[in-house]
Structure prediction request, 925 residues.
Amino acid sequence: MTALLRTAGVTKAFGGVQALSGATIEVEQGSIAGLIGPNGSGKTTLFNVITGYERVDDGDVYLADKQITNAPPDKVFGAGIGRTFQLTRVFSRLTVMENMIVAAQHGERGRGLLRNPFARAGGPATRRRAMELLEFTGIANHAGALAETLSYGQRKLLELSYVLMADPAIVLLDEPAGGVNPTLISTIADRIRQLNEQGTTFLIVEHNMDFVMGLCHKVTVLDYGTAVVTGPPDVVRTDPRVLDAYLGTAEDDDDIPVG
Amino acid sequence: MSAQTARRPAAGGLRSAAGARLGGVAVLLVVAAVFPLVITNALYTQFGVDTLIFVTAVAAWNLFSGFSGYISLGHAVFFGTGAYTVGLLTQHWKVIGGTIFALLPLGGLVAALIAVPFGLIALRVRRHTFVVITIAIFFMFQLMAFNFAFTGGNNGLSTPFFLWSAAEYNNPFYYAALILAVGTILLCWAIRGSRFGLQLLAIRDDEDRARGLGVRAMRVKLTAFVISGGLTGMVGGLWWFFIGQALPQTAFNPAFDLSVALMAFLGGFGTLAGPVLGALILEPLQQWDAITFTNGFVGEIALGVLFLAVILFMPRGLIPTGRELITRWRASNARRREPAPGGAPPGGAAVAQPAASTSQPSTGTPSTGSIR
Amino acid sequence: MGREITEAIVDGILGGGVYALMAVGLTLIFGVLDIINIAQGILVVLGAYLSYVLSVHLHIDLFVGLLVTVPAMFIIGVAIQWAFIRPLRGRERTSMSLLASYAVAIIIEGVLYLIFGSNYVNLTARYVTNGPKIFGFYLDYIYIYGFLMALLLVAAIYYTLYRTQFGRTIRATMQDQTAARIVGINVNRVQALTFGIGVAVTAAGGMVFGATGGGFNPNTGYDLISRLLAIVILGGLGSIAGAMIAAIFMITLEAVVDVVWSPSWSVVVFYAALVLVLAFRPQGLLGRRAARAQ
Prediction:
């Protein structure tokens, strides 16, 4: 199977802190990949680097063998990588539907912008697709509500929905199960599985071990900015290097895998 | 606040609400159109012209600042540029009579052209710094108006004598102002519903995220800035014709932006009708105040106090606050009418609902079968 | 011409020191509260008027009078922050505080007009119009004292920030409000006190400005705040060193242009310098990051 997304030796430091140090990971086309590791291991930084929110000090990022290192976020989005954030980012004062339409800008742009920027926001095709996605994630009956009135879990679903508007080849999810109740967690897992069956690749950062182990085909463990172990969930969870990464030395207080 | 209170009204209610709104607007337009014909007191028609000028100015300001969230305190630059441009053209081409109104678009054009380099520099910085740049550029323009010979220096520019009857002197200005005001409001409404407007609003909420989704932030902001500046320039030109004289300190007046901002905030920053309402309330008040209190400083203090009161107690402005009160009143009425609290509201504010409603035998995907 | 330019440079540096003092207060307030205090200009004028009252009606020496005006302005600053800035909440908080401080400025200006009228006044003392001759230049004592006081106060601010516990809490709040709260810092109090300090510093600056500015009235506040804002932005919001460098640079530039070209254009150049710098370096000279690294 080919690697849809690949990083090669990515290195990134912030002042004195080496966040990523030769991070090399691969995500196979059509898989659901997990990225775990203790706090500070560089997971979110790696996401930021892949999606263009941070520049690399060294190393490369490839999407389907095309180099996209240091491409700005909008180009990355346009290339087919969608991304959600740990702290959900939605447009609070726009309605749910409007949030979806904004995310559709990219698709509509080539055709519409030059002709008539004052055109009605969101043509019928866009709205139809938006409603489909909203029904898929289950928040369609909030379509007219302002995003700021949604609950935390609903916001997560909205962010996932609008990222899907661009029909990305791969979606990077940053802690999709964080702070969400168990019922919704399993719903989210279901949705991810369904999308994956239809061909979307996923790379998921998570601390919830049940979620990761139950969903992902392959898991990569990051520690101190470098990938230490990669493999199927069962293999990874019992690998001594993983336990070492999480438990560290006796004095360290790093989080221990849940479950 | 439950999801229901912030939702747009349900279908049936929507139709009646929209109908009421349209009816209200129609009435307002008719009133505005016949106002100077019915009320012939020159003082009141003067109030009318001033008010309409500010309605345009505030709507134009809100079009940029309200929709993008970048507060500009330098729009007086466009106002004054429009005034001086129109003034210089009038003098140069020796225009008198009704053709002066044809010069207004030129005033707007020059202001819009100035907005381009202004915006290119100012819009690259974050919001804090942006405000300060607008202030800095404002002062530069005021000082240039004082210093340059062609702007008349301290004496400014005066209008030629207009040859229409003294009794209805204000009327042509009134109608010109009305046309500008209505045109500006229509433009704001069109933009609000357009893709461009949506992008602008998204920038206001989360510029970085919007950029990440492909919104060309600089282009969008600059376009709004230029349109806003052009409109302000046109109304500045009209102001010059009406007032009769442009001095550096009146055409480039620091109080202008503060008044405009206050009106926008009072009515509802970032809304469509808010700025109009704010101008309709405050400008006549300011005019009346200027006439009643010869000591202008009391008026200044009153302006500041009013602004503080609005910001502290009604920061979202009259229209959003009013809307909120109405929906709350409606919701409490609805609750009183229903027999028992019963189940959750149809919208389902609880997080678990989406899971429950979609975990049906079908996988939750729509009948077309696939999402892709 | 060369001599005039040198004189202008010296004047500029000395005058820049005074502006630095007022600008430091403004940038400190931004650093800790994340707001731009538009009222700073009129507060300088208020400080000058307070010194005026003490000097003219109570015959208290200008510098001695500071012992009264500085604490008074500190209290006024805390009161303003507590009453009008702290209650502001919500997403538009920064824009709101900007407009709120603008409104406060307008009110203070109106009150000053009512009390003092629009006549220009000056702060005078023996040392305002007298001075030694150094290297062939006449320097008024007031400039020297003012500059020294500016150095002293800025040094005191630095000392407080970097050598005292209180200063640590200020810097912590500047870096991360949430984290500061978590470690038990009373952020509200820190913000109120910092605002007070920022304003108190203006009393001192106001006194020197009132003595050297060539006359002031309530309207002078506009000119002052626009200059202070330009200086603070050029130096980089939140950077104290940046504010000082920018103040000296811009005031000196203006003084030189004054002599070389003309007074009416020097002010335009002043603002043009800001615009130019921002065109190439939107974060200003030293930017906020530098403040953190200090």
Summary: Chain A is about 35% helix and 25% strand. The beta strands of chain A are 3-14, 17-28, 32-36, 58-63, 66-67, 81-83, 170-174, 201-205, 218-223, 226-231. Confidence is low (pLDDT under 50) at residues 108-114, 249-253 of chain A. Chain A touches chain C through one residue (CB under 8 Å).
